[in-house]
Design a protein that fits this description.
The chain is α/β, with parallel strands linked by helices. It has one domain. The protein contains two helices and three strands. A three-stranded parallel beta sheet has the order 1-2-3.
């Protein structure tokens, strides 16, 4: 497929492991949706870094990115997550990405 990136949800056990990343073609990006938008509890930055490190065993770090798992659109009809919690999660993504990728 002529795509630049694959957005993959990895925010819970149901998502499975990172083994499919071994098929990531060179020149393509896998965006790891590690930060859940299902509830407001903030993830640990260290836990996110460990998960990114685990994913990098299957695909080069320079082909990986970090994001929330599905945006926050699901909050309209299902997930009750406060706006400030959403902001905190986005800040966490930015801070973690800066520390991992520079």
């Amino acid at each position: 497929m002529n795509l630049d990136a694959y957005f993959m949800e990895y925010d819970d056990e149901r998502s499975g492991d990172f083994r499919p990343l071994r098929y990531l073609p060179k020149g393509k990006i896998a965006v790891l949706g590690l930060v859940t938008t299902k509830f407001g509890e903030l993830e640990s930055k260290d836990a996110l870094k460990r998960r990114i490190d685990e994913a990098s065993k299957y695909a080069p770090l320079e082909q990986l990115c970090l994001s929330p798992q599905c945006g926050f659109s699901s909050t309209v009809h299902g997930n009750n997550i406060a706006v400030e919690a959403q902001r905190a999660k986005l800040r966490l993504v930015i801070e973690t990405a800066q520390e991992v990728w520079g």
